[in-house]
Amino acid sequence: MSYPHSPAVSGPGRIVVVSASVGAGHDGAAAELARRLTAAGATVDRCDFLDLLPARLGPLICGSYHQLLNYAPWAYQRIYAATERGGDSGRLTRAVLRRAEHATLRILPPDTRAVVSTYPLASQVLGALRRAGRLNVPVLTYLTDFSVHPMWVADGVDTHLAAHPVPAEQAVAAGAENVTASGPVVNPRFAPATAAERDAARARFGLPERAPLALLVAGSWGVGPVEQAATEIRDSGAAVPVVVCGRNQALADRLRASGVEHAFGWVEDMPGLMHASDVLVQNAGGLTSLEAFASGLPVASYGCIPGHGRTNAAALAEAGLAVWVRSQDELKPVLTELLEGPLGQAQRAAGLALFSEDPVAGPVAEILAAAGSAVAGPAPDAVAAPAGGRRPAGRRTAIVLAAALATTMLASPETTEAAVARGSFHLLHDLGR
């Protein structure tokens, strides 16, 4: 896509990448984009969108979302499904996002050439600023999920970048006008292992030398039916489970106490652990799945978390990149086929085919092209602040707004109020005590 800005300026200049510390996937994608853009000669600033929200709502959003996945996954699934059909943001969500617009403009330096979002709420704010003429440089959204919730598609965003044609088609169906299936980006440390690298990694992590290993991951928070999945993998006899629990150290301790020997908390050397493994079993379909594809591992989706976990599993299956195992009876035959059969070979080939050897290609090339054709400088904030300045939200209001953003994102007013009536906010209120 070409951007009609004149006069053009040479070189990529400054690019601002806006992410959010909700889990690790959004930040992981942002970090790799920033690394590659910097290597290509751009000056890159990174920003956490949660820091731009009013009334310190960012930590509440993280906590609310985390607690829902842990203690009320049924509510999250119901709300996610309703908002997926709704296609319109609720009143509370729109109000909070409007209040984040001025703060967003403030973090864009005058020499900004392009802004990249890896988080849907940030894309909504940036798109609104672009649409209103308050931001005059290109905005691109990098879709971190393999399935595309309507919240990812923001009017005013110049380009939506997808890892594969399946999410690209979903983005178009959700109303995005300019979508490019530009491929994924993961750190180059994620690559197929040699036999020597495999043996060394197993020794380093204290893993069995010869047994087939199933690497079970559950995101940075370690959510979902992880204990059940680990036990069922072990009892199937198809592979030895190696479980990564993220920051949920209590889960790792429980697994080891229950006889699942190889359970880890936060792992810094995930490339090494993938080198040691033979198959990945995941429940959310995020960045770790892409890292597994780059590592040459076949992937199975199992025990998927509600909402995006299930829609990502469906999209990965549609793309031929991962098998969605829906029952315990399917687990052993699927793992055996992925480890030893033609299905595993086909998935390894399909996963590796997603990646270009050129680091300045795919999404990075699209971002550089946008930045290179832009006039430096975001437009000044043309909307005056309300008289009397910003009034800080009260405690009760902050919790309700956090819940609206964390659980619905695109919820219609009716959906949000129904969620409140069902008692979801009783749990969230406990977070604020």
Automatic annotation (TrEMBL):
GO MF annotations in UniProt: transferase activity
Keyword Zinc: no
Positions of the Diacylglycerol glucosyltransferase N-terminal domain: 47-182
InterPro entries to which the protein is assigned, alphabetical: Diacylglyc_glucosyltr_N, Glycosyltransf_28_UgtP
Keywords: Glycosyltransferase, Transferase
Endoplasmic reticulum listed as a keyword: no
Family per similarity comment: Belongs to the glycosyltransferase 28 family.
Protein name per the record: UDP-N-acetylglucosamine--N-acetylglucosamine transferase
Species of origin: Streptantibioticus ferralitis
Organism placement in taxonomy: Bacteria, Bacillati, Actinomycetota, Actinomycetes, Kitasatosporales
